[in-house]
Amino acid sequence: MNQRILNLPNILTILRVVLVPFFIYFLFIDEFQFKVYAMLIFLFASITDFVDGYLARKWKQETEFGKFLDPLADKILVTSAFLTFLLLDEQIEIWMVLAIIFRDMLITSLRWLAIRHGSNLRTTMMGKLKTAFQMTAIFLLLILFVSVSTKERNTINKIYETGRALGTSGFEIAFHNYKNFSSKEYEFQNFNWIDHAASFIPYYVMLITTIVTVFSGLRYLITNFNLVKPTNLYNLFWRKK
C-alpha cells in the first residue's frame, strides 16, 4: 500500500474489520465482562464508521480503496453480528438473517454493474434508514445480552424451541410473551421484568429491522432498475464480446 492509502480514515476502517473476530469471540463467552467487551467493541466500531468518512471528506483523503472497504467493513460487522445472534438466540430466525444477507448481495451486485456501466449506484434515504435500524437493533440486542444472565437466556431459548416443536410460530410465541409482560403475568417465577422483556423484544426488533432492510433493497432495485434491464445486461455481457 502507498502512503495515500495508509491514511487515518482507512486505518480506522481496517481496524473495524480487524475487531470483528474479537467481537464474535467475546459474545460466545458466558462471563458478564466479555459481553460488555463485545458491546464496547461494537460501539467503537459504530463510531469509527462515522468518523472515518467524516475525516476522509474533511481532510480530502478519500481513496478508491476507502470507498471500496468502508461499505464492505460495515457489511462484515453487521452480518457477523446477526449470524452470531442467530446461533445464540432462538428468537432470531434464519429467514431474517438470510433476507439481510441477500439484500447486501443484491446491492453489491448492483454496485458492480454500475461500475461496469461506468456510472455510480444511485443511493436512497432508505439505505441510511436501514443502516440506522440495523445498528440500533444490534446495540439493543447487545444490551439485552449484557442484562440477562446465561441461565435466563437459556430458559428463553427453551421457550422458543418448545413452542416451535409444537407448531407455534416465533411471532406467536413472542406475542404471547409480550401479553404476559404487559399484564405482568410473568410465567416464570425467577424472571424479573428485564428477563421477561428479553423474551420478546429481540424478535420484534429483528422483525422490524428485516422488513426495513428488505424494503431498502427493493428501493435500491427500483431506483437503479436501468442497470438490470435485459437490453443493458445483454449489451454488457454479450454484445461487447
In short:
With 241 residues, the protein is mainly alpha-helical. Helix content is 77%, strand content 0%. The mean pLDDT is 85.
Intertermini distance: 33 Å
Q: What's the alpha carbon Rg, rounded to whole Å?
A: 21 Å
Mean pLDDT value:
85
> What best-fitting shape do the alpha-carbon axes yield?
globular
Helix content: over 70%
Task: Say how many strands there are.
Answer: 0
The structural class is: mainly alpha
Tally of domains: 2
Helix and strand arrangement:
Blueprint: H1 8-27, H2 32-58, H3 64-88, H4 94-116, H5 125-147, H6 150-165, H7 170-182, H8 193-197, H9 201-223, H10 230-239
How would you describe this structure in keywords?
2 domains; 10 helices; globular; single chain; mainly alpha
What can you tell me about this protein's structure?
By secondary structure, the chain is mainly α. The protein folds into two domains: 1-88, no CATH class; 94-241, no CATH class. Helix content is 77%, strand content 0%. It is built from ten helices and no strands. Helix 3 (64-88) runs antiparallel to helix 4, helix 3 (64-88) crosses helix 5 and helix 5 (125-147) runs antiparallel to helix 9 (201-223). The protein is globular and about 60 Å long.
